[in-house]
Design goal:
The chain is built from 13 helices and no strands. It is mostly helical and about 300 residues long. The chain folds into 2 domains: about 70 residues, no CATH class; about 210 residues, MetI-like fold, CATH 1.10.3720. Helix 6 runs antiparallel to helix 11. The radius of gyration is 27 Å and the shape is globular.
Length: about 300
């Protein structure tokens, strides 16, 4: 009886067999997709990702509205969303756009200089052991020094003009870029390098035609992460010593107890960061399509 049943199962048509494997009992396609998304390193559809992200922002807005409109917190300390929107209109009419522009200039200027210096150094540190032995301890040492601690010293050395803010961003970003790019280079599979040597590639070509191209998507992702830190450095620098910029605007609003304007400045920073972050992710996916591991459905 058991043998007969086994034979009957073996003789099932291929289409039915495949269908039975693809759709387990009691689980529809939607349930399977949800289960896959919650598995480690799971994947989800692009549209689902957008909807879930939007739901998170709606939830935060609902929580903010519930706490502020209900009077649980004094409006002096937590403005309502509508009051914050009105404050945003007011400060943009008063020239807040120019503060945004100067802050973006400082961040991108300092970050660009740090990237131009840091990426080649990171490639050398990650590729050549003698260079790593010489430079990596120094950058590891500097990395643990908070950039904000150098602000008073840089004000004494440089002053409070644009050079001081850009120098703070370079100091904070450069060690991170060098060490993280070196890590990206070291993550290139050794089997890929060995295969290149087997095919007759020389050392220079292995570096520039194998290692660097393979690590390029990760390097761009590293720059995306460090750019977020650069925004922190510039805001601190503007709060301590500046006469313009978003950080300066936050300080002026704090002195006049205009908490709604502080909220506008903070939300503006978050919005700019979200836009830049998504643009860099898009650039990574566009420039390195071969490296895309997430399926767009």
């Amino acid at each position: 009886m058991t043998a007969t049943t086994s034979e009957a199962r073996t003789d099932l048509p291929d289409s039915l067999s495949t269908q039975a494997q693809a759709q387990p009992s009691g689980r529809g396609p939607g349930a399977r997709r949800l289960g896959d998304a919650f598995s480690p390193i799971g994947r989800s559809r692009h549209r689902s990702t957008l909807l879930v992200g939007l739901a998170a922002f709606i939830l935060l807005l609902a929580l903010w509205s519930a706490v502020s409109y209900s009077g649980m917190v004094d409006p002096l300390f937590l403005p309502t969303p509508s009051d914050t929107l009105l404050a945003g209109v007011t400060i943009f009419q008063s020239g807040f756009g120019s503060d945004i522009g100067i802050t973006v200039f400082r961040v991108m200027g300092g970050f660009l200089i740090a990237s131009i210096i840091g990426i080649p150094l990171g490639v050398l540190v990650g590729t050549y052991a003698p260079v790593s032995s010489f430079l990596e301890p120094v950058f590891s040492f500097v990395r643990y020094m908070p950039a904000s601690a150098f602000i008073p010293l840089f004000i004494l050395w440089i002053g409070i003009d644009e050079t001081e803010k850009i120098a703070i961003i370079i100091l904070g970003s450069l060690p991170q870029i060098v060490l993280m790019v070196a890590s990206n280079i070291r993550n290139v599979p050794m089997s890929l390098v060995e295969a290149s040597y087997t095919l007759g590639t020389n050392r220079g070509n292995v570096l520039w035609k194998v290692i660097v191209p393979k690590a390029s998507p990760d390097i761009l992702d590293t720059l995306r992460i460090v750019l977020g830190w650069a925004w922190t450095y510039v805001i601190v620098a503007e709060i301590v010593g500046a006469s313009s910029g978003i950080g300066y605007s936050i300080l002026q609003s704090q002195r006049s107890m205009a908490v709604d304007q502080i909220f506008v400045a903070i939300l503006t920073l978050g919005l700019i960061g979200l836009i830049v972050d998504n643009l860099l992710v898009l650039a990574n996916h566009t420039a390195f399509k071969w490296n895309n591991v997430r399926e767009s459905e």
